[in-house]
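Record type: monomer structure entry
Structure origin: computed from sequence
Chain ID: A
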Amino acid sequence: MHHRKCLATLLGVALFVAFVSSWSVVSHAQGELANEHKIRARLRHDNNGDANRDAHDASARARPSSNGISWHGGPVMLGTPTVYYIWYGNWAQGNGTDNAAGQSLLTNLAQSIGGSPYFNINKTYYAGTSQTSSNSVTGAVAFGGATTVGYTHGTSLSDAVIQQVVFEAINGTHGSLPYNTNAVYFVMTSSDVTASSGFCTQYCGWHTAGTLRSSNDIKYSFVGNAARCPSACEAQTTSPNGNAGVDGMASIVSHELEETVTDPNLNAWYDSRGQENGDKCAWTFGTTFAAANNSKYNVILGGVEYLIQRNWVNSGGGFCSMQ
C-alpha cells in the first residue's frame, strides 16, 4: 500500500509538471507570435493578388457587398489611432538614405496624413452591417513619437523577433513607447537590415496584431528601407525628396496604415482573394506630377511631395483613388 501511495504521488507530481510545462510552452509561444498570420505588401512587379488569401481568420464570414470588398465581422480602428515609429538599425549613416533627413520625411508623413483627402478614403469603412458615425473609421491619425533601438537583435529579423522588438519598446527593455491599444507600431529598419521571412523577395512590408496584455491588443507593422532592394520596393529610382529608399517606404507605410485601421485583427475588411484596401490598389498611383528633379509625385502632405499608392474607396461600386 505504501509503495502504491508513493507511485500515485510521483505520478501526480509528474502529471502536474507536464501540465505546467505544456502551459508554459503555449503561453510563451503566444507571447512570441500571437497571430501567426500577416498581411503582406507585395513587391513592385508581383501581380499575385492571391498572396494574402489564407492570411485571414478562416472562421470569418463575408457580409454581402457591392463594392468589391466585404466586412467579415471584425473591428475597425475608431477615434484617432496613434502611429509610433521604432527606428531599428543605424539611421545615422552616410549612405544618403539611412539618415535624419529620411527619418524627417517619414515623420512628416505620419504627422500629416491624418484628415487628408487621401486618408479620409478610410471613412468609407465601418464595423457593422450598416454605417453610422459611431462605428466608422474617422480618417484621423496622430503621431505619438518614436524611439531608436539600434541593432538589438542583429541584422536579420524573424517575424517573432520583430514582434519582440515592438514589445520591448513598449515595456521599456529597448526603447520607450507607451502602451496603446488604439495604435499602430511601425518597425522601420535601415537598409542594412532584413526580415528573414521574405523582405525584398516576397514583400516590402506587412502588418498584423499581437498579444501583449490581452488578445490582439497590439497592432504593428514591419517596413524596411526600400533602398535594400530598389527594383522590388522602390516606385522610382529618382524620387521627389532625393531619397528613393525612404520615399519608397512612405508608400508602404501608407499602405500598411490604411490596411491596419480597416482590418486591424485580419477579420474585418478584405475581398474574396484576401486583398485588403491597400492590396487592391498596390503600385497604382493615379495622376502624377513632375517634381523639380523630374521624378513623380501625386500628393503633398505637410508641405512635402510624396508618391504614395492609391487606396480602395468602399462606396460607389468600389474603385482606387487618391481622395
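Annotation 1: Residues 1-34 have pLDDT under 50 and may be disordered.
Annotation 2: The two ends are 81 Å apart (CA to CA).
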